[in-house]
Amino acid sequence: MLGSWREQVEAKGWEDERLKVVVLQAVALQAQGDKDKAMHLLDDALALAAPGGFIRLFVDEGLPMGRLLSEAEAIGMMPDYLGKLLAVCKAEEQQREDTSSQPPAQPLIEPLSHRELEILHLMAQGLSNQEMSERLFLALSTVKGHNRNIFGKLQVQRRTEAVARARELGLL
Length: 172
Known about the structure:
Shape: elongated
Helix content: over 70%
Order of helices and strands: HHHHHHHHHH
Number of helices: 10
Number of strands: 0
Structural class: mainly alpha
Distance between the termini: 43 Å
Number of domains: 2
Strand content: under 5%
């Protein structure tokens, strides 16, 4: 299925979509035990992604991609770029471990997602949208979208109200 999708996006010249497919193909091949093909596709994906500094595309694939990136690092593939990717993977894994030990009880009709809780915590620390964007390796528009979702779920209009409401609910 990924092969035909890749052919379609290549035919249309959609480079961003092509990159996504190649990343997914690498993870899928690794899961099937075809390490050589997975590494070859990962090398292609890294070559496409490095000029644009894509990070989230790889990190969002989680632990399987982390393992694949570690194997690529071990053979010396693109050390500078892989170093950045692995640093973000490790930071996110540590953050998942930290937050998974104490999941907050959410008395909300629609609970906040893990990412929305991250944004809310950074908001409570006084970080700007731009600072959150840089820290979480997200687009600024994505952070703003999460803010809108948080405001809606908490039924507030401003950051200060969101933080106060979250404290009332025991989310912070």
